[in-house]
């Protein structure tokens, strides 16, 4: 399959934008982290032995999506495989004007996310506990996910959907092989996060923007 693949380094300025955004919403994001850790003791939302500092890294990582033009221009975001609300919950906290839908196949995880959203007074969050195959698409949503899907598997589940654009946070070394399983030509921008961030946490991580060539 002939894809249009672009390789882009994340600019330092964009990494700084993410840090500024985190600082601006630090109180609410820290409250989210506290509630996520509380629920994680009851339900396995993230690794049981995860530290607060590591969760904070994952929240900042989720905000990388805000530096994409695909995120900027959308009003509706579907976060599939959300787990404990990553990346969708931090996005909802920082962008209350956008509608964020949290989706996961595990009902208990979605229940925890609903409770956290209610406690944080996030009126812009909706949820569903089902496969992404059963979620309704109008065509103008941005689908996002953080380390939850292989690209080919996700596209197969979306075959009957009028999906618009996708952004995935995943390991950079696995992207090209996963794209080989896509059944239609795609426009793909692979953004290496390490040039912008110098922390070891970001080594090997990428943001992947995907759209159909026919609509780009």
Secondary structure layout plus pairing:
Blueprint: E1 4-9, H1 12-24, H2 26-40, H3 52-62, H4 69-72, E2 76-80, H5 88-94, E3 99-104, H6 107-119, E4 125-129, E5 142-146, H7 151-157, E6 165-171, H8 175-179, E7 186-192, E8 205-212
Parallel strand pairs: 1-7, 2-3, 2-5, 3-4, 5-6
Antiparallel strand pairs: 6-8, 7-8
Helix pairs in contact: 2-3
Structure characterization notes:
With 216 residues, the protein is an alpha/beta fold. It has a single domain (12-167), classed as 3-Layer(aba) Sandwich (Rossmann fold). It contains eight helices and eight strands, in the order βααααβαβαββαβαββ. The chain has helices spanning 12-24, 26-40, 52-62, 69-72, 88-94, 107-119, 151-157, 175-179, and strands at residues 4-9, 76-80, 99-104, 125-129, 142-146, 165-171, 186-192, 205-212. An eight-stranded mixed beta sheet has the order 1-7-8-6-5-2-3-4, covered by helices on one side. It is globular. The two termini are 17 Å apart. InterPro entries: rRNA_ssu_MeTfrase_G, SAM-dependent_MTases_sf. Specifically methylates the N7 position of a guanine in 16S rRNA. S-adenosyl-L-methionine binds at residues 81, 86, 132-133, 146.
């Amino acid at each position: 399959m002939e894809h249009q693949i672009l390789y882009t380094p994340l600019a330092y300025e964009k990494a700084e934008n993410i840090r500024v955004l985190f600082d601006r919403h630090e109180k609410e994001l820290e409250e989210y982290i506290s509630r996520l850790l509380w629920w994680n003791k009851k339900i396995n939302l993230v690794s049981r032995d995860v530290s607060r500092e590591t969760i904070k890294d994952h929240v900042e990582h989720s905000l990388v999506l805000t530096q994409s033009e695909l995120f900027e221009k959308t009003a509706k975001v579907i976060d599939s495989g959300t787990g404990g609300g990553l990346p969708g919950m931090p996005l909802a906290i920082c962008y209350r004007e956008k509608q964020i839908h949290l989706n996961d196949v595990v009902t208990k995880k979605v229940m925890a996310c609903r409770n956290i959203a209610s406690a944080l007074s996030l009126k812009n969050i909706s949820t569903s506990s089902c496969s992404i195959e059963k979620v309704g698409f109008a065509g103008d949503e941005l689908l996002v996910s953080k380390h939850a899907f292989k690209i080919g598997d996700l596209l197969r589940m979306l075959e009957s959907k009028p999906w618009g654009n996708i952004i995935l946070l995943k390991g950079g070394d696995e992207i090209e092989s996963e794209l080989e399983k896509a059944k239609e030509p795609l426009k793909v921008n692979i953004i290496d996060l390490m040039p912008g961030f110098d922390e070891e946490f970001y080594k090997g991580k990428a943001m992947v923007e995907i759209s159909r060539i026919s609509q780009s």
